[in-house]
Amino acid sequence: MPETNTAPEIWRVIDLINWTTNYLQEKGFPSPRTDVEWMLTFVLECSRVDLYTNFEKPLTSAETGQFKQLLKRRLNHEPVQYIIGETEFMGLPFQVNPSVLIPRPETEILVEHAIDWLRARPKDSRKILDIGTGSGCITVSLARFVEDSEVIAIDVSEEALEVARDNAEINGVADKITFRQLDVLQNEPPGIQYDLIVSNPPYVSKDEFASLDKDISKFEPKNALIAEDSGLLFYRHFAENFSDWLQSDGQIFVEIGGSHQSDSIRKIFGEQNWSDIRFIKDYNDQDRVLVANP
What we know:
The chain contains twelve helices and nine strands. By secondary structure, it is of the alpha/beta class. The termini are far apart.
């Protein structure tokens, strides 16, 4: 925000939105207006709609000062979701912090298709295993939108599990989910067979990580992003082990890094005799979700 003689003595909501949006745009931030709106709703404790129904509202000096502090963090490329500590996924509220990945719209594609598949099954055949639950966005959404679902959610990080447990409480599904700390590469999950396995595993190679946006590379947890074997480590482990963890008519839904990985992943699962291997595309026509039968 400018510190010049031409700056308004009192900032109205619309002044702050317009000036800061232009400033962030000049600095090359991809979604400047959305960033400003989220930070302002946090400071003013209102909705985004309220910003525009009260756009001439003047901010107090305390509110302006708080907004400046948030803006400084954003200028350091800290994601807005971490700055305000929350985001939305599948229309639901989720708390987030740097111990978990920020839920993304691409993952909603996995959840939407999983919901449709589960709803088509008998109510006593909706046992789900979520591997690498992170914020719990997949687990909580499935528990919320699929009646009679039973979910076991595992993660290697206890800090991530704390966030996921809080999100389950916030969304009223804590009684439907069992959270467990477990390294899936070293240990087997609880010894039952599941109807559905879901996962958004690490799939970024070390070379790819170097080219990621600063918002991601500086702040999001590296262990939830980077995987050995050119980003394919978890897919190889899943293909070799997961067929025994599924019911014979079960399925696996796993997010992948894009179409550049799909041929390799198809080959990995095919070599382990998985059937009906296919990919669901995202909004950019990239292969985004692997679906396969044991």
